[in-house]
């Protein structure tokens, strides 16, 4: 699927139909329905198309969900490469875009699906790996520039930056942490450490 | 419910029945069923009791799930109070107990429920707050002892320690981070920071 076909008012009708169907998946998941409980009929009805229109585009529900996860994750803006701190803040902020609350909920609703299906877990990993890799490159550059420790555990650091984000977006794990300024505070705290 | 009644071979039959019913909830959730899709009938069948036996103990499915979440979280061991680093490692390791993989999956399966129900989110928060508070007290003690920064953001730090744990337990978010030695590595990295 060519993503550039999906943008702007001039995109072809078929791309708009694809979008409506994927949006219907998000809407139903966001409303709290499990992936299991959502039928192609319900998706088609929500999108305002016929069931056959869905099946012409995706052979089954799993294939549709794969595309939905991949499109949901989207791409990240290019890091500027001037300051590791600023790039990390920018990347965390970009993950928390205007639809993040909805998407965080969607991810939460996909989890039971991920538990059940090794294929869905691979799909999820495939969808997040390009995003993880953008951050990985920022960290590698920081080691080379001397902004970060030479002995940095890059994979653990990815998790230290993303894990708190995930826990807040999906679970609102700690209601005492304000979302205002969250990315800056997290990056600065991870950079300097908590030891005296 | 008196938790001490539930341990050992001498506990009363009614406690064993309670346990079997709650275990049935875990089993069904772990198998990937959404909380929505699980019926009292299915729980009773899995536990090997009659439906009436479940209803005698819990008025409805939500009440049963509340007890299941609370019992799942359990209590944490008492920090020794000698080293903040060692206490934090101990607490993170205790969260990753022998049943953590199952429980991580259970939490994942409860998420759609949490999204839908403000009451379930309150239940989840009520279940985790005592555990969060044990860690909070360790951090406060570390500030007082001078082991941690005087200006520490305690609430953010709770999230920095727990978020990566949650993301790995529930999503295996970064398969490149080994679970061997994870608690030590995370605590040490959070303590010293990633900046050069």
TrEMBL record, chains A, B:
PROSITE patterns: HTH_TETR_2 (PS50977). Keywords: DNA-binding, Transcription, Transcription regulation. Pfam families: TetR_C_11, TetR_N. GO terms for molecular function: DNA-binding transcription factor activity; transcription cis-regulatory region binding. The keyword S-adenosyl-L-methionine does not apply. Residues 39-58 bind DNA. This is TetR family transcriptional regulator. Residues 15-76 form the HTH tetR-type domain. It comes from the Bacteria. The keyword Metal-binding does not apply.
């Amino acid at each position: 699927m060519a993503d550039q076909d999906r943008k702007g008012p001039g995109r072809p009708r078929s791309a708009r139909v694809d979008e409506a169907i994927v949006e219907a998946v998000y809407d139903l998941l966001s409303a709290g329905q499990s992936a299991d409980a959502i039928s192609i009929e319900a998706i088609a009805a929500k999108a305002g198309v016929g069931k056959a229109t869905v099946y012409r585009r995706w052979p089954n529900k799993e294939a549709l969900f794969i595309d939905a996860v991949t499109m949901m994750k989207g791409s990240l803006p290019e890091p500027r490469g001037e300051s590791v701190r600023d790039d990390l803040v920018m990347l965390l902020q970009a993950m928390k875009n205007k639809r993040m609350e909805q998407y965080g909920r969607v991810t939460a609703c996909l989890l039971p699906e991920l538990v059940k299906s090794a294929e869905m877990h691979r799909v999820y990993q495939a969808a997040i790996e390009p995003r993880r890799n953008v951050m990985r490159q920022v960290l590698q550059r920081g080691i080379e520039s001397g902004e970060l420790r030479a002995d940095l555990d890059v994979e653990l650091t990815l998790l230290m930056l993303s894990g708190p984000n995930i826990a807040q977006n999906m679970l609102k794990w700690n209601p005492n942490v304000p979302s205002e300024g969250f990315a800056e505070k997290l990056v600065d705290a991870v950079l300097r450490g908590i030891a005296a």
